[in-house]
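lol so apparently i was supposed to do this last week
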Amino acid sequence: MKRLKEILSNIQKLESAASVLHWDQETHMPEGGGAFRAEQLAYLALIKHRMVTGRELRDELIRHIDYDSGKIVNITLSRDEKRLVSLVRKDLKKLTALPDRFVETMSRHVSNSQQAWIKARKNKDFSAFAPYLEKMIELKKQEAEYYGYEDKPYDALLDEFEPGMTTERVAALFGELKPRLTGLVERLQRKDPADRKILEQKFDTGEQWAFGMKIAEAIGLDLQRARQDVSAHPFTIGFHPDDVRITTRLNEDDLLSGLFSTIHESGHAIYEQGLSKEYYGTPLGQSASFGIHESQSRLWENMIGRSREFWSYALPLLQTHFPKLKEAGLEDWYRMINVVRPSLIRVEADEVTYSLHIMLRFDIESRMINEDMKVDDLPGLWNAKVQEYLGIKPKNDAEGVLQDVHWSMGGIGYFPSYAMGNLYAAQIFGQAQKAIPDLLERTAAGDFLPLKTWLNKEVHLQGRRYDPEDLVKVITGKALSADPFMDYLEEKYGEIYHL
Ligand code: ZN
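anyway here it is w/ zinc ion bound
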């Protein structure tokens, strides 16, 4: 077992070196370095592929588990170790399921398709992207066949992002969510949104940075083991629990976007810092899924960062950085950061309408893979779905079907994780409030340590011991459901808007 962990740790060191290069590419690399960086990364990926699929790892693995049947052959393994070797086998099987020629075709198609998408979006012209998407769907269907699945081909793609999830399960959860969520949005739309005039002025980005860093540190980001830089699109990348990077994007005309982005990415980074060092490189030292990762960022961004208690602590601090906000009272501020309005662009959506954007994408992409759908029908279907879920209509394809990068890069099956993150977050946060009865009072006092410590133990240190849905059940004692999320939203917004 020691040797297996060593090999996995070495593979992870190589992978993390590639991550440093990726991070540098997005933050500091001069533009001219792009071509050579691509060569470096491709070569590192090749070495990694050789290490992962090489004899050494496989020989070590089959001492513990039968590669074909998945039956444990080393009876001295602990429960954790059994889980570990089962997941290494699963990952390896997936990695080797795709023939080299298919991987090559896919990788070439991804670059072509992304370029086509950028152009098509710029020209607001779906038809220029349609043939690329059609080919992508064909390739993803093929990929699903290579991976194998029990019920629907889309399940095989979902498993990349949310292990154990199926089309049927996601549809059931979203089916629970839909009537309550659209109902809430309708009721909120009849209310006047808060007056946000005070936010319509310039906010010095240096002060924004300083305040954001204070908040990141306050909620539990360890700055001895993390740093923040600027990039075009905010992201988090962890090389090791002791070295995690986040990025942000600041705009002097938009105080809230940079601020909440820093809290969001800090939530991701606190997860990365909380992963097990002992199991570094093994599945038990990795995050449970994209959705669980997203649950951590959203819990901090929304459930804490958009709460009244948080701002009773943070508003006076914000006002020392921006004296021009001195006039803003806590109640007005709380309403200003919790405005709900259906909008066309997913990444700008508020915490209530966000999941609706995801649900319509899931409807469409699961049909793309599970059924025979004509790509030409897509813009029409998209617009009809936006109308159905959000009650509004895109003016063109750029703010409609072409807005997201995911489909062009082959990320089909990714979208549900964003909404699952909201469901996981609400259910986990409910449990945290039971475990820490004075959680909100502590929040108002600026003391986030009990929550961070609880999340470290209950979520972060678990790694991939459980599939995401099981993890939520282990933590909360209840099956995953849309109810905690809806209860949270209805209570919060019902009170703010007197519904
Ligand atoms: Zn995120």
